[in-house]
Write a structure and sequence with these properties.
- The complex is a heterodimer.
- Chain A is an alpha/beta fold.
- Chain A has six domains: 7-127 and 266-328, FAD/NAD(P)-binding domain; 141-262, FAD/NAD(P)-binding domain (3-Layer(bba) Sandwich), CATH 3.50.50.60; 350-426, Enolase-like, domain 1, CATH 3.30.390; 428-497, BFD-like [2Fe-2S]-binding domain (Arc Repressor Mutant, subunit A), CATH 1.10.10.1100; 508-564, no CATH class; 649-806, Sulfite Reductase Hemoprotein, domain 1 (2-Layer Sandwich).
- In chain A, 29% of the residues lie in helices and 20% in strands.
- In chain A, strands 4-3-2-8-20 form a five-stranded parallel beta sheet, covered by helices on one side. In chain A, strands 10-17-11-12-13 form a five-stranded parallel beta sheet. A five-stranded antiparallel beta sheet of chain A has the order 23-24-27-26-25, with helices on one face.
- In chain A, strand 39 (838-841) and strand 40 (844-847) form a beta hairpin.
- The longest helix of chain A is centred in the last third of the chain and has 18 residues, at 741-758.
- The radius of gyration of chain A is 31 Å and the shape is globular.
- By secondary structure, chain B is mainly β.
- Chain B has a domain at 47-147: Rieske [2Fe-2S] iron-sulphur domain (Rieske Iron-sulfur Protein), CATH 2.102.10.
- Chain B is built from no helices and twelve strands.
- Chain B has strands spanning 9-10, 42-47, 55-61, 64-70, 76-80, 95-99, 102-106, 113-115, 121-123, 134-135, 137-140, 143-147.
- In chain B, the strands form three sheets. Chain B has a four-stranded antiparallel beta sheet, with no helix packed on it.
- In chain B, a hairpin with a 2-residue loop joins strand 11 (137-140) and strand 12 (143-147).
- Chain B starts with 8 loop residues before the first strand and ends in a 14-residue tail after the last strand.
- The chains are: A alpha/beta, B mainly beta.
- Bound molecules: flavin-adenine dinucleotide and iron/sulfur cluster.
- Iron/sulfur cluster binds next to loops of chain A.
- The site of flavin-adenine dinucleotide has 35 residues of chain A, from helix 1, helix 4 and helix 7.
């Protein structure tokens, strides 16, 4: 072997050395291919090397546009990042392959390194096509394919904006990609004109009628459209950057930025040079097994020309990856054919097309419903007997997409024209045949989803997603998956119990409604009327939370005190040794030097361990129950109030420093954060929740990791909802854009109240939004458009909360009755718990371990021991 | 560094440590009865009114930590204050409830559930069940008495405060 050739590390315990699989290209298809190898190659027969030109691990190109709302490239991560740490997998970033030597079975990378392979997969995807227009290389002209492309585009627009007048943008190409790019330019604050050569927008997917409806929707977003327009030249301006577009019809358009989105070209150059067959319109020709004429060279994804065509969608690419892996492992899978159904991902513009959208099947019938006022255009293509669905186009309202698409090629039950009526969701999911594909991204059939319920005991959406992968990519099939799940559970006679516990047969939401309607206000009355027994640690805190949402009494009032768990009961956080931690509120993370001194002095006097929390405040640990009132007396006297770190309630509103100090800030993020924190402090909810506010799109406050995230824009605030960190991290999704402060606050009010009323016990906002009617769109309809007619009621509830708020700790200190619960012992109220023991570590106290405790007891024979931290002050 | 750092030691049995409290905290009469020598058979620990219904309170009985619970019907029950699953003395701070007709408490630490009458662990939350010790309790008028070793329910002897 050539001495420079890098080889895979030697084999593990198996006798046969693993074979070397080299993948050229680190895109979406490569990622799926490696995932499939690691899933299925249980004997570690293959050592996989991925040579990737881009400087990063494979990412979700389909979601590229979300880079503009999320900013962080990490948001686009695909699958389990642990995949790349697998010893059987090697990802080489920044490695562009320049040559394939089929005879020697090696590939060479631009930097000269050579890799040997036993089998080679070309997964090089496509590049954005650049039409030969004069001036297409000017600064300010961009394509839209990679993270680097969109980062450069963003940087350019921001730089242009700094010149102080609106940035004028144009997108050449009115297809799926062009419209996404247009949305991105608008999101960046630029104006935008879409230039389309053809007669209408998205001409590859929708017909003329659909294109016209689409134009109206696009116009509503503030995007201008020029159809039938050929761009002849891009002209340079005085600064040497792109300044004007000249059209063949004599028209002109002044521009500061141009995005070219006229199509893609398969990156088949390696195969060409290696003498492999190339398709008429490009692409590496492969057979149904995805193999080229060379038995050791395969191609998958956008670069592959299969059945005479390259496919510019991710789902067929994933299918090819699975076929290749199956073959490498000795299987005989063949490419199943492509589903070219598409859905435009542009918020506010619903477009989908599927199947034979252009009615090319002989004898096909078209059924059209058009409502220009509502901006809706719907077309179904049916077989000549009007019974079998062949395809369709949905513009303006594509809610039926998820359920119609799997019905393609199948007989429709009932009158098809009924399906066109707006708001009708045709297939209930229940009658969908088992082999119908429900999730095309991950090729999951209705049968597989049903099997998840019957064979794998999944009873909720989260479990089905984890088990089948359905809905884990673009998510457009989730409504259908949810329906299938529901139908299957009913059919299997599984009643999903929503009972809270043995005392209440209802869910939190049902109980909330019941308590609201009956007006009962004590646990005894509620359990007598709606449940039985005397409750437990599950239902009692739920009832306490519901009651506080409904009338905002003190958490320790009367019988209610007995419902709280210890944290809410003593208004502190229980720690592992039975002591508590204390967190005063520091709204927006803003604190005066005087405030810091008070906290420091209190912590010092009581020997408390201090730590800065992730929520931008200070946590003091190691307070005994009997010390809590004394500690709080000092804090309250100094103007602090409860931070509710112990409650299922608002924790903090995290903020960046914002426009007051930051060079980039466009709004006062701290001011807003303080106002929001003061507004929602003490608000009890099904789960703790957090907010974040960033002063510009750089997002230093990580607001999108919060239940409610606010990001400043030049025109106001963008509102995101449903994010969280923790066990299952989620990024918040965009709910509304460019809101003024009043509208923002009102929208958050309603969002929180709607959540508080309808979520299940311990359900965070993200899973709640998956379950709630209509998902994100449903929430938007309720909080922005008042679709349920409850907005006024939600507003009134929040107003009541804000008016009734009082600091729980202050109220407690004023009430001798409430102070009684802080006795360490009922018969020795100020005697410390003798079992507590502390040792010093890094200059502060921490609980002693069991061994340390035993040692201490031995050395101080007799009696239990309290060893104080270095700074514990004992006053007499 | 080996072993823990030893810093000023307080042994609360001998010298009660006064909590550094500025506020109005100590609102209760200390009714602990200290009998030196032989263990008393019954110790008066508090008045019934000192206990909130369906909530626990800790008490020191002969140097041992006991968790007292007053149920809705004013029955008082006593179990070990030490939570065997965490080692922390916190059982009195758990939520009181029922399982069927059995009065229960759930650990505030890791949520295990015990029968308050027998101390039997009813739900070990996936761990090896560990029961709690129990103490006999009786009330004399409004005084709550906890029985020491060998105490049998009956009229209280000379332990009223
Ligand atoms: C903005 C946008 C939106 C999209 N939306 C959708 C959608 O909604 N639905 C959908 O189905 N599809 C969509 N697509 C298309 C989808 O992203 C592609 O079909 C998919 O990424 C194809 O995967 P691939 O692995 O074949 O190619 P790619 O993901 O392009 O990956 C190919 C990789 O190979 C690398 N490479 C190329 N040549 C070499 C070489 N010589 N050496 C080393 N590395 C090399 C490239 O740098 C690239 O990283 C969208 C695409 C874009 C750009
Ligand atoms: S998010 Fe923007 S305003 Fe806030 S600190 Fe970062 S750069 Fe500055």
């Amino acid at each position: 072997m050539h001495p420079d050739v890098e080889t895979a590390p030697p084999a593990g315990p198996l006798d046969a050395a693993p074979r070397r699989l080299v993948v050229v290209g680190g895109g979406m298809v490569a990622q799926r291919l490696v995932e499939a190898v690691r899933d299925r190659d249980v004997d570690d027969r293959w050592q996989v090397t991925v040579l990737a030109e881009e400087p990063r691990a494979p990412y979700d190109r389909v979601a590229l546009t979300s880079y503009f709302s999320g900013r962080d490239p990490e948001d686009l991560a695909l699958g389990d990042p642990g995949l790349w740490d697998d010893p059987a997998v090697r990802l080489v970033r920044g490695a562009r392959v320049v040559d394939v030597d089929r005879a020697a079975r090696t590939v060479r990378v631009a930097d000269g390194r050579t890799w040997a392979y036993d089998e080679l997969v070309l997964a090089t995807g496509s590049s954005a096509a650049m039409p030969p227009i004069e001036g297409n290389d000017l600064p300010g002209v961009f394509v839209y394919r990679t993270i680097d492309d969109v980062a450069a585009l963003r940087g350019w627009v921001e730089q242009q904006a700094a010149r102080g007048r609106p940035v004028r943008g144009a997108v050449i190409g009115g297809g799926l990609l062009g419209l996404e790019a247009a949305g991105a330019l608008r999101a960046l604050g630029a104006t935008c004109t879409v230039i389309q050569v053809g007669t209408h927008l998205m001409s590859a997917q929708v017909d003329l009628g659909g294109g016209e409806a689409l134009r109206r929707l696009i116009n509503r977003l503030g995007v201008a459209v020029r159809t039938g327009t050929v761009t002849e030249r891009m002209r340079v301006d005085r600064r040497g950057t792109v300044g004007r577009l000249d059209f063949a019809d004599g028209g002109r358009l002044d521009v500061d930025v141009v995005v070219v989105a006229t199509g893609v070209r398969p990156r088949d150059e390696l195969a060409r040079a290696a003498g492999l067959e190339i398709g008429a319109r490009g692409g590496v020709v492969v057979d149904e097994a995805c193999r080229t004429a060379d038995p050791h060279v395969w191609a998958a994804g956008e670069v592959a020309c299969i059945d005479g065509a390259c496919l510019g969608l991710v789902a067929p690419g994933y299918a090819m990856a699975e076929v290749v892996v199956d073959r490498l492992l000795g299987g005989s899978a063949v490419f199943p054919g492509a589903d070219t159904a598409t859905k435009l991902k542009l918020s506010g513009v619903d477009v989908a097309s599927f199947g034979d959208a252009f009615a090319r099947t002989p004898g096909a019938l078209e059924l059209v419903h058009s409502d220009p006022v509502a901006g809706v255009y719907t077309k179904l293509v049916l077989s000549d007997d009007a019974r079998t669905l062949l395809g369709g186009v949905l513009v303006g309202d594509a809610s039926a997409y998820a359920s119609l698409r799997p019905m393609v090629g199948r007989q429709l039950a009932g009158d098809p024209s009924a399906l066109l009526l707006p708001g009708k969701d045709p297939a209930s999911g229940g009658d969908l045949p088992d082999d119908a594909t429900v999730c095309s991204c991950n090729n999951v059939t209705a049968g597989t989803v049903r099997g998840a319920v019957t064979d794998h005991a999944c009873t909720d959406l989260g479990a089905v997603k984890a088990c089948t992968r359905a809905g884990t990519s673009c998510g457009s099939c989730l409504p259908l998956v949810k329906k299938l799940l529901g139908a299957e559970l009913t059919r299997a006679g599984i009643t999903v119990s929503h009972a809270l516990c043995e005392h209440f047969a209802m869910s939190r939401r049902q109980l909330f409604d019941a308590v609201r309607v009956t007006g009962l206000r004590t646990f005894s009355e509620i359990v007598q009327r709606h449940g039985h027994g005397r409750g437990c640690d599950i239902c009692k805190p739920v009832v306490a939370s519901i009651l506080s949402s409904l009338d905002d009494g003190h958490v320790l009032d009367g019988e209610r005190a007995a419902l709280q768990d210890t944290n809410d009961h003593v208004m502190a956080n229980l720690q592992k040794d039975g002591s508590y931690s204390v967190v005063p509120r520091i709204p927006g993370g803003e604190i005066t030097p005087e405030g810091l001194l008070v906290i420091g002095q209190v912590a010092k006097d009581y020997g408390l361990y201090t730590k800065i929390t992730g929520g931008q405040r200070i946590d003091m640990f190691g307070a005994r129950i009997d010390q809590l009132p004394g500690i709080w007396k000092r804090l309250v006297d100094a103007g602090f109030e409860s931070g509710h770190a112990y409650g299922k309630s608002l924790r903090t509103v995290k903020s960046c420093v914002g426009s007051t100090w930051c060079r980039y800030g466009v709004q006062d993020s701290v001011g807003l954060a303080v106002a929001l924190e003061l507004r929602y402090r003490g608000l009890r909810s099904p789960h703790k929740f957090k907010l974040g506010v960033s002063g510009c799109a750089r997002e230093c406050a990580e607001a999108r990791a919060k239940d409610v995230g606010v990001i400043a824009t030049d025109n106001g605030w963008n509102l995101y909802v449903g994010g969280n960190g923790g066990f299952t991290p989620r990024h918040a999704q965009l709910l509304a854009e460019d809101l003024d402060t009043d509208t923002l606050v009102r929208t958050i009010d309603r969002f929180l109240m709607y959540y508080i009323r309808t979520a299940d016990r311990l359900q965070r906002t993200a899973p709640w939004m998956e379950e709630v009617d209509g998902g994100l769109a449903g929430v938007r309809a309720v909080v922005l458009d008042d679709a349920l007619g409850i907005a006024a009621d939600l507003d009134a509830s929040m107003a009541r909360h804000v008016d009734a708020y009082a600091d729980e700790w202050k109220a407690t200190l004023e009430d001798p009755e409430k102070l009684r619960r802080f006795a360490s012992f009922v018969n020795a109220p100020t005697t410390p718990d003798p079992s507590l023991a502390y040792v010093a570590e890094r200059g502060q106290a921490r609980p002693a371990t069991a061994t340390e405790r035993a040692e201490l007891e031995r050395s101080t024979a007799g009696g239990p021991v309290v060893v104080a931290g270095t700074t514990l002050a004992v006053r007499s | 560094m080996t072993g823990p750092v030893q810093v000023p030691v307080q042994v609360p049995g001998d010298v009660p440590v006064e909590a550094p409290v500025d506020g109005p905290v100590d609102v209760r009469v200390d009714v602990r009865v200290e009998v030196r020598g032989a263990a008393p058979r019954w110790t008066a620990v508090c008045r019934l009114d000192d206990l909130a219904p369906e909530r626990g309170a800790a008490a020191l009985v002969d140097g041992e930590q006991v968790a007292l619970f007053r149920l809705v019907d004013d029955t008082v029950l006593a179990v070990e204050q030490r939570d065997p699953f965490s080692g922390a003395h916190v059982v009195s701070r758990g939520i009181v409830g029922t399982r069927g007709d059995t009065p229960t408490v759930a650990s505030p630490m890791y949520k295990q559930v015990w029968d308050l009458r027998t101390g039997r662990c009813l739900d070990a939350v996936g761990r090896e069940p560990q029961d709690l010790r129990t103490w006999p309790v009786q009330t004399d008028g409004d005084v709550v008495l906890v029985g020491g070793p060998g105490a049998v329910p009956g009229p209280a002897e000379g332990a009223a405060p």
